[in-house]
Input
Amino acid sequence: MGNAQLDKFIQDAKELCQPSRVHICDGSQEEYEALCKQMVASGTLTELNPKKRPNSFLARSTKEDVARIEGCTYICSEKQIDAGPTNNWCDPAEMRAKLLSLFKGSMRGRTMYVIPYSMGPLGSKIAHIGVEITDSPYVVVSMRIMTRMGKEVLDVLNNERFVPGLHSVGAPLQPGEKDVPWPCHPKEKYIVHFPEKREIWSFGSGYGGNALLGKKCFALRIASVMAREQGWMAEHMLILGITNPQGEKKYIAAAFPSACGKTNLAMLTPTLPGWKVETVGDDICWMKFGPDGRLYAINPEAGFFGVAPGTSMQSNPNALLTLKENSLFTNVGLTDDKDVWWEGLTSQPPSHLIDWLGQDWTPNSNEKAAHPNARFTAPAAQCPVIDRAWQDPRGVPISAIIFGGRRSSVVPLIYESFDWNHGVFVGASTSSETTAAASGEMGKLRHDPFAMLPFCGYNMGDYFAHWLKIGGMTTPDKLPKIYYVNWFRKGKNGEWLWPGFGENSRVLAWIFARTSNRAKGQKTPIGIIPAEGELNLEGMNLPPENLKELFSIDLKSWREEAEGLRKYFEIFGDRLPEKIKAELKGLEERLNA
Ligand code: TSX
Ligand code: MN
Output
């Protein structure tokens, strides 16, 4: 069956970008292999040792194209106030004119690929379809791992509406001109969203979230706008299943700013005997109310696009096992036996490798072997602990939502919100100390409400209001309980108070107990913490003074915390919901009582 919107999208893109060829992707293995072969020939990809890492490749980008670029990311709503204080805004007509001039002839000498894809299991009522048009074969093979892509999507598209995304690396080829391994535009980069029209236009970058438009652009920025309109939620959250020793299972969603180990939590190996954690997703969560009034979540993605440095058999064995084949690596080191390496993979670095810039590297080199934002792209199905319901079109029922951040002081290991509205306030208050991996100074506190700061497609104040509204759409007993965790609190000598990683299962077990009414908790001015003895610490030798410090709530520091929040919330002006103001006032009153 034809689709008029699709035919017009392809025709318009062709006329504007003037590619040499048009290729409609069918998503087949043959197509994937042909594109990989073509990219090996062009120097974009290096094939890894098939004995060590079958059907896997390495890509190296240029120095200038290594990460998402928030400064070049725009929400072009009709009115600036609807993009809000946390987004870059530009007048949509002005931006459209700019984009039309940039995209004019931008695909000359290249193939224009049309990628029909589904975010979420095909046929799920929570899923949505997108079509990305791109001149990058790297994007095509990445999208094949990260989404359900190709003919099967066209077959269900019919006359349904889809989210169009037009992407060009912005490097047209003159007749006879030889291509470079990583084409991109040297200066002009634009990642543009038109929320009212539900369109994405991305120019100049070939990297990650700038170019794989299904992920941050669609599944978060555009989807957050659709979710608000339609009464559902598009969140920057992992989804995990947790089973207790009695075989009872619950699902938890969790949002963290970058560099907090979200993928590690999603694939956790519990140290608590008899407990099991399984992964539904590690980055994005779409939730809709089910017929029973509970929130059901799907992972709209089909793969993991994770930060490689720091990923090891110690920090995340399940991620490493996921990468054993059929994986794409970007900006990692290449070992002499044609395998991959990055900082933190092994305690002993190889004595020689080729670094992410293609230069010889030894442990004595001053540069890093892998770029700090080097990535792996791997099929979720290959994860050894992938949840059996990860592709269930109905989604999984969410019992708890966790927020968290990296805080060396003030914030306890875990607390629970008093109710939904207080939980929304807690989510809005999410903040994290910057690490070397993020841009800016180290250790500076950055507010990142709901970990959505760079991903909300509309005014963040209205997004808080949407969360509050969701809480009124069902009965309180059906809503997930809301938590805030901090794995990163430090003692007086700068030592970690909590071992983290698999030991975090003890915190998850308390959440499990609370959501089953099996733990009574203990009220504090900021929320509910585990009552004496409720956090299972058996077999871990946590010094009692660490436990005390992990849960200490210093009223003076928390008054400063509330003051900082009050100041931060000012940026939202009259779009800050009254209920959020009331929650802040409530916190201040409890701290002063
Ligand atoms: O991912 C992390 N998690 C969550 C795991 C499920 N990391 C890595 C953060 C960077 C992405 C952590 N780092 C966690 C954590 O819970 N905790 C810490 C801090 C920490 C680091 C090392 C030790 C203890 C705490 N201990 C030793 O190195 C022995
Ligand atoms: Mn993310």
Notes: The pocket of TSX (ligand 1) is lined by residues 259, 261, 264-265, 268, 310, 487-488, 496, 499-501, 504 (CB under 6 Å). The mean pLDDT is 97. The first strand starts at residue 21 and ends at 24.
